[in-house]
Amino acid sequence: MVLKKLPVLFWFCAIGINLNAQAQRVSAKEIARYKQQAAAVTIIRDNYGVPHIYAKTDASVVFGLMYTQCEDNFKGIERNYLYQLGRQSEADGEGRLFEDVQLQMIADSAGAIKDYNQSPPYFKKLMNAFADGINYYLYKHPEVKPLVFTHYKPWYALMFTDGSVAATETGGISPAQTQAFYNNETDNTGALYRSRPVINNVPERETGSNGFAISPSRTASGHAMLYINPHVPFYFRSEVGLNSGEGLHAYGAVTWGQFFIYQGFNQHCGWMHTSSYADVGDLYAEKVSRLNGQWFYEYDGKLKPVTSRRLKLKVKRGDSCTTRYITAYYTHHGPVMAAMDGRWLALKHYNRSYNALLESWLITKAGSFAEYKKAMGLLANTSNNTVYADDKGNTAFWYGNFLPKRDTAYNWALPVDGTTSATEWRGLHSIDEIVHVYNPATGFIQNCNSTPFTSSGKSSPNKAKYLVYMAPDGENYRGLNAISLLSNAKNLTLDGLIAKGYDKYLAAFDDLLPSLFSAYKSAPDSIKRKLAEPVALLQAWDKRTAVSSVATTLAVEWGMLMFRAIGPAKPGESSYQVQRVRQMLQTLPAAKQLEFLETALQNLQKQFGTWKMTWGDINRYQRPADGVTFSDAQPSLPVGLTSSLFGQLPSYQSRTMGTIKRYGYSGNSFIAAVEFGPRLKAKTIITGGQSFNPASPHFADQAKGYIDGDFKTVLFYKEDVLKHAERTYHP
């Protein structure tokens, strides 16, 4: 059916209003409260600038945590909340409007306010401290000019309950498709389910994270170990230590603007979250009609009224603002995000909840496997797998957490019929029903965003025992690499575990290169003569990246062209990397593979004047003062890592940035190796350094260690922190 125009109203602010001229209004009562809290908090910055926060209560620690986050990167905090609250267009203009529309439809702030008001007193104290810590920073630093938020409210924390890099479930609906629906451009969004290819036009897109848990049987100390290796945009999280008189003693990575350790450890246990492909949200194709000016949708043979909510969005235009009102539509399944083939697509999801924030906090304080499982039993984490280890020698892995029960007669990778109750969710799978591994006899667990059914060798879960939507992943090359490295590992130390995590082997070329060599062998003599030298280099290559390696450069440049030849995946199969590469190699003509190699040589020759470029000459690390302006004329460091797309465990995504050389922008971020003995031992490294201030000694003091896998020792206990204290102060 053709949709009628949906109501969109406009209101224009007075021209000339400066959106950034707002000042925070703070009452004397608030100032007194802030100062009282600040006096109760002690912050010790160590010799790497990492803040260790000490206070008697958890709430006071949260206050100090948020203050230190603001010191390090207030802009990052505000950016995250602009996104989560659907208010980016207030800072960035029209281009972000329908991202904001999506977020406001998906997460209603009224729900967060209600959850806050109904929270138990102890948890409300944490949220109050969260807001107070940020607001006190703004009060003390009037030179800081927020883009939008001049006063943070406690319920904001309930709008941002998952620390993942891409936590919001939209059902695959893009902002442009939502815009098309609400602007009545078209109701034909049939291309919606053209799944992402393995590689798209971005040179190297995000390809996930790694988590390893090692049982005592495989370690030199006889204690369990954990390896934490998220792959995210650089500088995405901060490294902190949290300590209270109420039992909080945790260390790890905190996503800007949150008050719980997202990936890290306490004195008893540790957790690594990897992005999950478990199906946690669904689109419902609604059959709608319009009667007497009201929209209705069909459900079990009856008509139900479509409900609506008026969204208010401010849009920046120069120094003035526009307020735009959009009427958003809802069925009982959820917000209507787009349309396809005449049917409205409503999203059923669990993107924002009180339990999600509570679960994240309880995990931070869990003191045992039983307590950790109890927190996980809230079933509120919608985006993560979890790899776990503890001081009793337990190791565990859960594939997902929040997982609705569904009728397997339907294909949940596509929109399901919204007209029948047969497609409704039927409760949630329990923590022991979802795909999991507890204390595997093989002594290791690995998850690299690939199938859980190879996570622990012979101790891996049996795929036949689980429903398809519970774990749709296929295998990727990082997973194959991790299995190879861990299945034979014995007497591992912390440094040995780090070495495994920084292994530079590119497993994808186990499949790619034999096909190329076969094509070369059968090629005409003219082609053989032209490609003899580069092919010989690749034949002699050990498939490991290195700064001094020309073969690495050739392999990466050629491999990127090969991956671009892979067509779009089917819905639910975007993670089937190994399978899809092998299928491509069966059909891609030999001549095409050789043509790609010629193209790679030509591209290098054109860009650098020679194709014989070592990888370190091309692939660089640089941290610009403004974060965005890279320059070949400025100092940089050679990097012997590459994209995890090719199966390398450490990830270093790089591309040209208006430059000739490539510069890193995403991949390894906060990385940790932890040993859970009677006295915890851990080592970590982060991208570049803790500070965002180019004048700080901690702006890039970890860069070399990050590149080489040379981790710093974690100062987990206060006596060690004091020995390396650089600055001690109250907020």
What are the key terms here?
globular; seven-stranded mixed sheet; single chain; 731 residues
Please explain how this structure is put together.
30% of the residues lie in helices and 22% in strands. It has 19 helices and 31 strands. β26 and β27 (662-668) form a beta hairpin. α4 (97-106) crosses α7, α8 (354-365) runs antiparallel to α9 (369-376) and α14 crosses α16 (590-608).
Q: Which descriptor suits the 3D outline?
A: globular
Strand order of the largest sheet: 22-20-19-10-9-8-7-3-2-31
Number of strands: 31
Largest sheet: 10 strands, mixed
Uncertain segments of ≥5 residues (pLDDT<50)? Answer: 1-22, 188-206
- Given helix and strand content, the structural type is alpha+beta
Mean pLDDT: 92
Beta content? 15-25%
Helix content: 25-40%
Distance between the termini: 60 Å
Helical stretch tally: 19
Radius of gyration: 26 Å
Concise structural overview:
30% of the residues lie in helices and 22% in strands. It has 731 residues and is of the alpha+beta class.
Helices and strands in order:
Layout: E1 8-12, H1 28-39, E2 42-46, E3 51-55, H2 58-84, H3 89-92, H4 97-106, H5 109-118, H6 121-140, H7 175-182, E4 210-214, E5 225-229, E6 231-233, E7 237-244, E8 249-255, E9 263-266, E10 269-275, E11 282-286, E12 288-291, E13 294-299, E14 302-305, E15 307-317, E16 320-331, E17 334-340, E18 343-348, H8 354-365, H9 369-376, E19 384-390, E20 395-398, E21 416-417, E22 436-438, E23 444-447, H10 477-487, H11 494-501, H12 509-521, H13 525-540, H14 550-564, H15 577-587, H16 590-608, H17 615-618, E24 619-621, E25 637-638, E26 652-656, E27 662-668, E28 671-675, E29 681-685, H18 703-708, E30 712-713, H19 718-723, E31 725-729
Parallel strand pairs: 3-7, 11-21, 24-27
Antiparallel strand pairs: 1-16, 2-3, 2-31, 4-5, 4-23, 5-28, 6-27, 7-8, 8-9, 9-10, 10-19, 11-18, 12-13, 13-14, 15-16, 16-17, 17-18, 19-20, 20-22, 24-25, 26-27, 28-29, 29-30
Helix pairs in contact: 1-6, 2-6, 4-7, 8-9, 12-13, 12-16, 14-16
